[in-house]
Amino acid sequence: MDDTGETRSAGVSPAPFSDGISSSEPRVMVCTDEEVVARAAAELFVQLSGRYIADEGAFRVALSGGNTPRPLYRLLGSDEFRSQVDWRAVQLFWGDERGVPPDHPESNYGVVHRELLPRVSIPRENIHRMEAERPDVEQAAREYEQVLRRELPLNALGVPQFDLVLLGLGADGHTASLLPTSKDWRDARDLVAAPHEQISGVRRMTLALPVLNAARHVIFLVTGEAKADILRRVVKERDPSLPARQVRPTQGELLFIVDRAAAARLEGSAG
Ligand code: 6PG
Predict the structure, then answer these.
(1) Closest to 87 measured CA to CA, from 112, 122, 61, 115
(2) Given the DSSP bridges, would you call strands 7-10 and 204-207 parallel, antiparallel or unpaired?
(3) How far is CA 28 from CA 235, 248, 253, in A?
(4) Fewest C-beta in 10 Å: which of 24, 157, 238, 256?
């Protein structure tokens, strides 16, 4: 991968995504810092969008919340990158959302609305916000599931299949809003869930494991030394109690793009 600054790939081929479908064991791309992480992710976003738009006329992606992907969203909206994506053919979804209005500082949609949407021409009907602030958030989750079924191809098991799902990693091993403090993510029947956040009690909405694991490509973005321990538990120790470890696409590709600080504890044997 060129001009992304120095990247030291640990167990990943020069082209992090092969053309075929590979095993769902994680590949890890270690980048110098968070800006290089964002650049590597932007380049893969361009690569994958070009492939799926050429092959199928659309690129269906679920965006991550949290702070880590902000540099990526800014980069995708920059003069350097935005012209490399045919945004008219992009279908935008979210991996999860907090139970707050879209203009709230905590809204995952709000981050993308500020950092990316004003700079790219995605048709309004292609932007599928999770309405997690609705009092009837369970009904909102059912309706979001219908949107997934309408807009996405279904895999052999009838599960809506994203081309790309971007995820973050919480220091407690959560991803999207699959929280280790609750157990309902384990045997999810629904494709979209509405968990309570155990601490604040705030409702959330989240894609459930069956949808995440049906995706063709899943990319975790993980940066900062605060994530070094949990990243080791997920990638090296493969701790099954962690929701992030349970994201293992059944046929898709799984890639962790991390900076050196987050990768600090990946060397050495597991355990
Ligand atoms: C959310 C996110 C969540 C996030 C992780 C990492 O709504 O909070 O979806 O899963 O990706 O908590 O967050 P940071 O990137 O801010 O560390």
Answers:
(1) 122
(2) unpaired
(3) 9, 14, 11
(4) 157
- DSSP summary character for residue 127: B
Q: What is the pTM of this model?
A: 0.92
Closest residue CA from atom 10 of ligand 1: 176
| Of residues 85, 107, 87, 110, the one with CA closest to residue 97 | 107
Q: Tell me the one-letter amino acid at 51.
A: R
Average pLDDT (76-85) is 98
Per-chain mean pLDDT for the chain: 90
Of residues 142 and 188, more confidently modeled = 142
226 C-alpha to ligand 1 centroid (Å): 13
Q: Tell me which H or E stretch contains 98.
A: strand 96-98
Residues having CB closer than 6 A to ligand 1 are: 64-68, 95-96, 98, 108, 168-170, 174-177
Comparing CA positions, the residue from 66, 203, 221 lying closest to residue 139 is: 203
State in Å: Cα 143 to ligand 1 middle: 23
